[in-house]
Amino acid sequence: MTILGKMQILADSAQFDLCDYVNKQKNSEVNLPGIYNASSNGCEIPLFKTLMTNKCKNDCKYCINECKRNFTRMELSPREIAKVFLNYYDSNLVNGLFLSSGVGNTIDQTMENLIETIRILRKEYGYQDYIHLKIIPGASKDSIKRAMSLSDRISMNIEAATKDGLYELSSTKDYNKDILKRIKWINDLSKRDSSLAPSGQTTQLVIGANDETDEEILKRMESLYNKFDLRRTYFSAFTPVEGTELENRIGESTERTAQLYHADALLSEYNFKKNEIVFNENGQLSLSEDPKILAAQEMNIFPVEINSAPYIELIRVPGIGTKSAKKIINIRKKMPFKKLSDLKKIGVVTKRAEPYIKIEGKYQTTFQ
Ligand code: SF4
After folding, report:
1. HSE of 213 in the Cβ direction (CA atoms, 13 Å)?
2. pLDDT by residue (tens digit) across 256-296?
3. In a domain? residue 263
4. Cα–ligand 1 centroid distance for 223 (angstroms)
5. Domain boundary among 268, 291, 314
6. Complete edge-to-edge strand list for the sheet that includes strand 304-305
7. Which of 103, 111, 234 to mutate to test the pocket of ligand 1 (most atoms within 8 A of CB)?
8. Domain that holds residue 308
C-alpha cells in the first residue's frame, strides 16, 4: 500500500479525536487525507491531523481503534509522517501538525515514536511552525518533558468526567494515575519552564458515551481550571462505531456539546462558579436556552450600572463579553456612557444586555 493510502486510513482512524464543534473537514477542493480546520480565536487554521498508528492495546469502547475491533491496522514511521506532513506544509495546504497515536506496542515506545517524529521535523528539517502533540495516558515524566520541549501545545484526553465514568468506557486506563497525575505533571513542568509547550495544555471529553451529566462534566472542568493552567476543553459528541461495544448506543447530539462549550466558557473565561450555572433536575443544561442568560436570571446583582460596575459584574451581563467589558472600563474612565447605542458601537449585544443594565442610573428595559 502507498504511503498516501496508509495516510487515508490513519487520518480516518483519527476521527475519534475530532471535536464536532471546532473541527471540520477542509473544503472538498483539496481531496487529501488528514487536513482539518481547527478554530482558534475566531480563525480557522488548517492542520494536518493524523495518528502514527491505529494499532492500540487499549479497549476504549467508543473508539474506532479499540483493541478488539477487527479492521485494517497499520503504522507509519516517524520519518514517513514527517515527510508527508512537510509535503502538505510546503504546498501551503496546512499551517501546522496535530499528531496523536494509538498505543501500538508499549506506552514508552509510542511516546518515543511521537517524539522522534517532531524531533526530525524540528532538528533535521528546521520546521518552526505549530505542533500540537497528544500525550499518551501513562507516559513517563521524562518523555512528557521531551515532548513539551518540541511542541507548541500538548493535550491529554481525560475522556470522562469521573473515575467511574472512565471505567465504564475503558478497563485499560486508570483515571487518576494515567491521566490526572500526568495533567498535573504537565502543569508543574510548564510552571518551571515557560518554554515547554508555550501554548499550554488542553483536554478532551467524549460526551454521551456514558451517562455522566453536564453537571458532573462541568464540576470536573471547574476543578481542572482551578488547579491547572488548562487552556481549553474540547467536547466530542459520541458517535457509535460499528464493531465496538457501544455500536448500538444512540449517538450524542451536537446541540448538547454546543451548550457544554457555552457553559465551559463561563467557567474558563468568565470566572463563573459551577454553582452559578443552571441545570435541570437531572443535572443537564438546557438544550435551547443560553446558559449565561439562565444564570443571569438567578443572580440578584442586576441591573448593574455600566458606568461603575466592576469587571466581574460586567462580564456576567448577557451580551457583554470579556473584550467589550474591558473596553467599557477603559472608555468610562474618560467619559461616562450615556446611551445604549454607545455600547452597541463597542460590540455589546444590546438587545441581550438591556434588561440587565442601567446607564447613568436609568433602567434600559424591565425584566421579562
Ligand atoms: S487509547 Fe483508547 S481512544 Fe486512544 S486510540 Fe486507543 S482505544 Fe482509541
Report:
1. 12
2. 999 999 999 999 999 999 999 999 999 999 999 999 999 99
3. yes
4. 24
5. 291
6. 304-305, 357-359, 362-363
7. 103
8. 299-363
- Taking 70 as the pLDDT cut, the residues of the chain under it are 15-31, 40-42, 366-368
Q: How many CB atoms sit inside 10 A of residue 105's CB?
A: 13
Minimal-distance CA residue to ligand 1 atom 1: 58
Alpha-carbon gap, residue 119 to 100, rounded angstroms: 15
Domain boundary among 263, 291, 319: 291
286 and 167 together in one domain:
yes
For ligand 1, which residues put their CB under 6 angstroms from it?
Answer: 16, 56, 58, 60, 63, 65-66, 102-103
Instruction: Check residue 29 and give its pLDDT.
Output: 52
Q: Cα–Cα–Cα angle for 221, 223, 225, nearest 5°?
A: 65
Task: Determine the atom of ligand 1 nearest the C-alpha atom of 136.
Answer: 1
- Residue 363: per-residue pLDDT: 86
Query: What length is written for the chain?
Result: 368
Same domain, yes or no: 114 and 196: yes
Tell me how many domains the chain contains: 2
Residue 170 CA to ligand 1 centre (angstroms): 9
Domain holding 317: CATH number?
Answer: 1.10.150
pLDDT of 5 reads 78
Q: What are phi and psi of 183, to 5 degrees?
A: -60, -40
Judgement on whether residues 254 and 305 belong to the same structural domain of the protein: no
Q: Residue 26: what pLDDT?
A: 44
| Per-residue model confidence (pLDDT) at position 19 | 45
